[in-house]
Please model this.
Amino acid sequence: MPRQVVLASRPSGWPTEDNFALTEAERRDLADGEVRVRNLFMSVDPYMRGRMNDAESYVPAFRLGEPLEGGAIGEVTESRAPDLQKGDLVLHMLGWRDEAVLPGRHARKVTPAKGLSPSAYLGVLGMPTLTAYVGLLDIAAFQPGEVVFVSGAAGAVGSMAGQIARLKGAGRVIGSAGSDDKVRWLREIGFDAAFNYRARSVLDQLRDAAPDGIDVYFDNVGADHLDAALVMLKNHGRVALSGAIAQYNATEPPVGPSNLSLCITKRLTLRGFIIVDHQDRMPDMIADVGGWLAAGELTHAETVVDGLEHAPRAFIDLLRGANTGKMLVRL
Ligand code: NDP
Model:
């Protein structure tokens, strides 16, 4: 029988493996228009933490006792959908299970990318890189020559945001991450400067890395990182508010930033965005990233955990920073 991960209970603060349960799924015949997909890889993403809460957001909350959902890529094993055939590789939103049954119109057929694992569609050729691309180029309106600071820089979105800035002609790219190994890796993949935010205050280290200030801040973290960036932004600087992972497991209201009035005096622009609103930019992103990958100019890392039964652990480890690049589960 195919297996699935269901939400067993809602976490308060940090999730634990007890919040999840592995169960057997009912196998049923396909209705007209549906496909059966054997999932090959599923994505674990920070936004899933918000869906574990019983709260309104831009995506519905996961329901207790029901299987979780999320990005996945798999192979069609049976089809009653006109445009999909057995053997097709498809991207869809029914991860957290070995096998998905869904309307064919909810599955996007993709061509296996030359030299890349199918998992690339959940990472370097997928949603995280689109987030980096849109956040940097459209939301923060990055211009060549500018100084860019990226937090969460060794993750799926951050590692792409920093490299896209470099490839689009940034004057200087600075990244922050949570370990010395990650900091070393950021330098290897072309960040001009990188620092471990656990070692010393973010503001002190950002000031050392960008003594003349920054033009753009790509924010994946919020809290002390956003506070420090506001201090170091130049007049007319821009911030792409992508995520605030420092507060996703908080049980108390987050502290700060305490210096928002700097937005007035420095004429700053802070703009939040949700990537589902920007799917029209996918072809541009794929064209740029495809070119950089072919030329060997862009590095992408994946941290892969094996087995559906380990998906809850992979998700919790993602929130704790165990990943470099995109965190994935191979099914
Ligand atoms: P990552 O691959 O970056 O994984 C999350 C990382 O966050 C961890 O590896 C960890 O790295 C870091 N982290 C965890 N806690 C903290 C903390 N307290 N302070 C600083 N860093 C922390 O995930 P993604 O690339 O998928 O997502 C990155 C951000 O982008 C998230 O905030 C996410 O919500 C957001 N996002 C937003 C989207 C949008 O549409 N706006 C779409 C996709 C993602 P470390 O070891 O460095 O601490």
Notes: The chain is about 25% helix and 25% strand. The two ends are 14 Å apart (CA to CA). The pocket of NDP is lined by residues 45-47, 128, 131, 152, 154-158, 177-179, 182, 220-221, 242-243, 245-246, 273-275, 318-319, 321, 323, 327 (CB under 6 Å). The longest strand covers residues 34-43.
